Amino acid sequence: MATALHSRSSMAVAMQLFGLLLATFQKTDGNTGVCYGLLGNNLPPPSEVIDLYKRNNIQRMRIYAPVPGVLQALGGSNIELMVGVANEDLYNLATNMGAAYAWVQNNVRNYPNVNFRYIAVGNEINPPAWEANYLLGAMKNIHRAISEAGLGYQIKVSTPFSAGVLGESYPPSRGSFRSDYGWFINPIVSFLVETEAPFFLNTYPYFSYIYNTQYIRLEYALFTSPGTVVQDGQFGYQNLFDAILDAGYSALERAGGGSLEIVVTETGWPSAGGTATTRQNARTYYINLLRHVEGGSPKRPGRPIQTYIFAMFNENQKDPEYERHWGLFFPNETPKYGVSFY
């Protein structure tokens, strides 16, 4: 479900994916960020949140809407920011260039001391949703406004997809986009190639696992398999994260986007409220994820995977219950796992 203030992959989308912390994180070198959602009535003020990012050396942030208080607090922090455009704004931005100029002025140019890196236009939009008809137009207009402001070299415009856009994902080399989405996704891939922007993919081994436990072992989802689980030609897969990511790369190659980098715009593991939701499992997932993304995937080895962990805090205004337990921190800023980025 996508909202202006927070998003994460839906259960229904995750069910399509089968074809397819008392600890410290490994050094991330700034390649890993954390998503800052706001669907809680007990969260600390933005100024404290920015201080928490800085104290923990979290150098990248994703927010789901350009909330003025958050943007003001980010000023001068040098935290690299991905800022979202709400799904409900796409029609206006796609059909009114003046609205795109205004969006960029109000939410980017008015904050010259914020280190903007990406604009995420919408979130997890797929046909037949009405927004699908306006997504590319909104992306193009925001990109034009950013470029005319002289910021096109610094700020790239893309849109986060769920892995539900994959029609086939197993084995990863057979990855392809859904054939009925071709009219929608192929022009977006072409736009990203033209503008040299990355492809954004929300990647959740957790959901793939819990809806396919008869086929997927927990160890494969948690990066703890002792050896290769899926042999796909020359590539061996020991974890589900890589398998989903490389299925995405195979799909991009088939759609003419082989030059694109995938940025993992959300990934995480809840610590309570659902199947396999324990602190130990979440701890294991994060420790292994942070170590793993520094080295790339089998199809793209030796290059770090830009990754955003979902999320900074537990958010108590969400349902079902497991949706409230994705935070690395409790709302009182106590670390859930004792982790640190260093």
Helix/strand order, N-terminal first = HEHEHEHHEHEEEEHEHHEEHEHE
Using only C-alpha atoms, the radius of gyration works out to: 19 Å
Main sheet record: 9 strands, parallel
Number of helices: 11
Uncertain residue segments = 9-29
- Terminal CA distance: 32 Å
Strand order of the largest sheet: 5-4-3-2-1-13-12-9-6
| Molecular shape | globular
The tally of beta strands, per DSSP, is: 13
Overall structural class, as computed from helix and strand content, comes to alpha/beta
| Estimated helix fraction | 25-40%
Beta-strand percentage?
5-15%
What is the mean pLDDT?
91
Which helices and strands, and how do they pair?
Blueprint: H1 11-14, E1 32-35, H2 46-55, E2 60-63, H3 68-74, E3 80-85, H4 90-95, H5 97-109, E4 115-121, H6 135-148, E5 156-158, E6 160-162, E7 166-168, E8 176-177, H7 182-195, E9 199-202, H8 205-210, H9 218-221, E10 230-232, E11 235-237, H10 240-254, E12 262-267, H11 279-292, E13 307-309
Parallel strand pairs: 1-2, 1-13, 2-3, 3-4, 4-5, 6-9, 9-12, 12-13
Antiparallel strand pairs: 7-8, 10-11
